[in-house]
Specification:
Layout (H helix, E strand, L loop, with lengths): L1 E7 L2 H5 L5 H16 L3 E6 L7 E5 L5 E5 L9 E8 L3 H9 L8 E5 L12 H17 L3
Antiparallel strand pairs: 1-5, 1-6, 2-5, 3-4
């Protein structure tokens, strides 16, 4: 199973405060453990929402662009990982080892093909497989 591990933003991350050398070292060591164990597929930190935008869709084909920053830092995302593990409980156990002293991190399972049932036709699955292969090739994976 794949999981997105969502690191919630806080006032520090939204202010643009970058991690210290010590914090980067701790996170690097943690990420190294994840990679060595075959858990981590991807992970990155995000710029503050002041450097972002939201696009709202009205259901009639029109869009509205809303520039950041956005309110409620605790509802925003400061970073993420993509992990592959056998269960949610395994993801929770790995996350407990993360070098965080405060804050909140959310774990969400990523849909696999089985989640879509009959709506996922063989043609759609073939297209998805082809696109994943193209993405991997474009990024040297």
């Amino acid at each position: 199973m794949r999981f997105m591990v969502i690191v919630k933003a806080n006032e520090d991350s939204e202010s643009g405060r970058m991690p210290t050398t010590e914090e980067l070292t701790e996170m690097g060591n943690y990420n190294e453990e994840l990679v060595k164990a075959g858990v981590m597929l991807a992970g990155d930190g995000l710029y503050p929402s002041a450097k972002g935008a939201r696009v709202a869709f009205d259901g009639k084909g029109a869009t509205t662009v809303i520039d950041g920053p956005f309110a409620e830092a605790k509802e925003l995302i400061a970073g993420f990982w993509i992990w592959e593990l056998p269960s949610l409980q395994d993801a929770v156990e790995w996350l407990k080892k993360a070098p965080f002293s405060e804050g909140e991190v959310e774990i969400r399972q990523i849909h696999g093909p089985e989640a879509f049932g009959d709506a996922l036709t063989p043609e759609i699955q073939a297209q998805e497989d082809r696109l994943r292969e193209q993405v991997a090739a474009q990024h040297g994976q």
